[in-house]
Write a structure and sequence with these properties.
- This protein has helices at residues 34-46, 49-68, 76-91, 111-116, 120-128, 134-143, 148-155, 159-180.
- The protein contains eight helices and no strands.
- The longest helix has 22 residues, at 159-180.
């Protein structure tokens, strides 16, 4: 079951669906199922394939180093928390979004259809332009990978703060969608 407007599970980068890392001693990554989601999270956080790859690889490297020391990552959220920080570090280089307060619009029934018209790159670039911690909240929300409690742990936020960040971000996203993506007439 996915939330309305969740990121479609499409390939965000050539070859990502073919990830075949073997990570011994990683109790939390018993299969490669989480690796594409981890990359997608990095991509949503950075909006740039090269920066996402850098954050993704740095996270896997940090996990491998932990495992080699006999201290494997305690849970899958560790990977996403580390990826979040790695993505923020990677995002500090290059062009930066201007600090501004975007317009907001109420969510409409056409939101899902409008989002379906977007390429994954457009969604990632929009999310990556949001300030932190809203960027992390939106990336986790649209990835549709986590429960609310997991998002709180991942982002180190209270439920009320998380709810406000997501609600405000969705209204800002709706305003952007209304300006850039035509709604379908029923």
């Amino acid at each position: 079951m996915t939330r309305s407007g969740a990121l479609p599970s499409r390939r965000l980068s050539p070859g990502i669906a073919r990830v075949t890392f073997v990570l011994p001693n990683f109790r939390v990554l018993e299969t490669n199922e989480n690796l594409p989601q981890l990359y997608r999270f990095c991509y949503l956080m950075t909006g740039d394939a090269a920066k996402a790859q850098q954050a993704f690889q740095n996270t896997l490297r940090a996990a491998a180093e932990r495992a080699a020391r006999g201290d494997p990552a305690p849970d899958r959220l560790w990977f996403f928390r580390d990826a979040r920080w790695q993505s923020l570090i990677a995002s500090e280089s290059g062009l930066q979004a201007e600090a501004a307060t975007p317009e907001e619009a109420e969510l409409t029934g056409d939101s899902g259809a409008q989002i379906a018209q977007l390429s994954p790159e457009q969604l990632a670039i929009w999310i990556a332009g949001a300030p932190e911690p809203q960027r992390g909240a939106l990336a986790a929300f649209y990835l549709d990978e986590f429960t609310v409690q997991e998002m709180q742990l991942l982002l180190e936020l209270k439920a009320s703060d998380l709810a406000e960040l997501i609600a405000s971000g969705r209204r800002q996203f709706q305003a952007w969608l209304n300006a850039t993506t035509p709604a379908f007439d029923a």
